[in-house]
Write a structure and sequence with these properties.
The chain is mainly alpha-helical. It folds into three domains: about 60 residues, no CATH class; about 90 residues; about 180 residues, hpI Integrase, Chain A (Orthogonal Bundle). It is built from 14 helices and eight strands. A three-stranded antiparallel β-sheet has the order 1-2-3, with helices on one face. Strands 4-5-8 form a three-stranded antiparallel β-sheet, with no helix packed on it. A two-stranded antiparallel ribbon has the order 6-7. Strand 4 and strand 5 form a beta hairpin. Helix 2 runs antiparallel to helix 3 and helix 3 crosses helix 5. The longest helix is centred in the last third of the chain and has 22 residues. The radius of gyration is 26 Å and the shape is globular.
């Protein structure tokens, strides 16, 4: 495997060539490369990885003999059958197939070697003007970004397989328009929502208050088991995610990244609510299942099966609660996660801690999503400082 060493503004790629038949170490091969300007740290790492792979293939002559007439459609079919199933989760693959269905009619006829950056830029521009059959509105920027990510992933694998020498979709996407701020409940709305939840069933009160208190995703909350709760530490171990796609059975899977496997913490009031809800679950399990509730039972499970509840069932229930109590219907279940993050930031919590509690792999992700909240916090801190010293 190639190694990479930083040298000022450039990088040295070193490929070990192994040993000859006498056991003598062969001279390693070296190549100096300089990343294009303007790349982020993550983009630079990806670019270097691609360059090291290509140089290693060149040094060891491992590039496979491939048909240079292979089209994007032909390679995508190969990718779906041979590469994707071992590379990504079933739920992710289903979404990738949706993106593939979008770009193949427009781009599938191109040979891989014919693909150029301008082809992708023109296609993304056309996508932005395409009307969705479901909504009757132009496709969202999120959809365009997803198609680009799918194309980049497929073509990166094509490059590693020797079908092409570089990724032609690399850096061809640029976000169009202004990113919308996340839907967040302000402190007054949170207080009204907490009062409203106390008028709902214990199950829904517990679920939604957990989201507000911990910033969990709805699928993560659905995946909780009673054994995940440590009452002594007042902590919850998040280690599962529940996904339900249309036409598919419920999938319970591990978090996508190691950062997703994490601990979050709750208050004494939340502990009291959890204990009250556990008592209700004990009664129902004893009455309907004729057995004892165990630590392996899902906290929010179906009454007719040992399966977790479907995340979408909480989505429509939350909308009903908002409407019933006259609360802003622009909010959604995921808004509770954003609300938790915003409250943490407003309290002065540092970005690394917020990222860890939310399960973000990189603090930069947290900064990107909640930049407006951090900016507001910085403005308030600056004003307080200036007022204190009478500037």
């Amino acid at each position: 495997m190639a190694s990479i060493r930083k040298r000022g503004g450039s990088y040295l790629i070193i490929v070990s060539m192994g040993y000859d038949h006498t056991g003598k170490r062969l001279k390693s091969q070296q190549k100096t490369v300089k990343p294009p300007e303007g790349l982020t740290k993550k983009q630079t790492e990806k670019w270097l990885s691609e360059q090291s792979t290509l140089f290693e293939m060149e040094c060891k002559s491992t590039a496979p003999i491939v048909d240079r007439k292979t089209t994007l459609a032909q390679y995508t079919e190969y990718w779906l059958q041979e590469i994707a199933p071992d590379k990504m989760a079933k739920s992710t693959l289903i979404r990738e197939k949706q993106d593939i269905a979008r770009f193949l009619p427009e781009l599938g006829h191109y040979k891989l070697t014919e693909l150029r950056p301008e082809i992708f830029r023109k296609y993304y521009s056309k996508l932005r003007n395409t009307v969705s059959e479901q909504t009757g509105k132009p496709l969202s920027e999120h959809t365009v970004e997803g198609v680009h990510a799918c194309l980049c992933g497929i073509l990166s694998d094509a490059m590693e397989g020797g079908f092409i020498t570089h990724n032609p979709a690399w850096r061809t996407y640029k976000y169009s328009g202004k990113k919308k701020e996340k839907k967040v409940a302000d402190e007054d709305t949170v207080r009204l929502l907490m009062v409203a939840l106390e008028k709902e069933s214990l199950k829904y009160e517990t679920f939604f208050k957990l989201l507000i208190a911990t910033g969990m995703r709805r699928g993560e909350c659905c995946g909780l088991k009673w054994g995940d709760i440590d009452y002594k530490e007042r902590s919850i171990h998040i280690q599962r995610n529940v996904v339900k796609l249309s036409g598919e059975e419920i999938i319970v899977k591990e978090p996508k990244t190691s950062a997703g496997d994490r601990y979050v913490y709750f208050s004494y009031e939340m502990e009291t609510l959890l204990n009250e809800y556990r008592g209700e679950c004990k009664y129902e399990t004893s009455s309907y299942d004729e057995r004892e509730l165990t630590d392996d039972d899902y906290i929010f499970r179906r009454k007719d099966a040992a399966l977790p509840m479907t995340p979408s069932s909480f989505t429509w229930r939350f909308k009903l609660i908002l409407r019933k109590h006259g609360l802003p219907e622009s909010l959604n279940v995921h808004s509770l996660r954003h609300t938790n993050a915003s409250l943490l930031i407003a309290c002065g919590t540092d970005v690394t801690t917020v990222a860890g509690l939310l399960g973000h792999a990189q603090p930069s992700t947290t900064l990107d999503i909640y930049s407006h909240a951090f900016d507001k916090n910085k403005r308030e801190a600056s004003r307080a400082m200036q007022a204190g010293i009478k500037i």
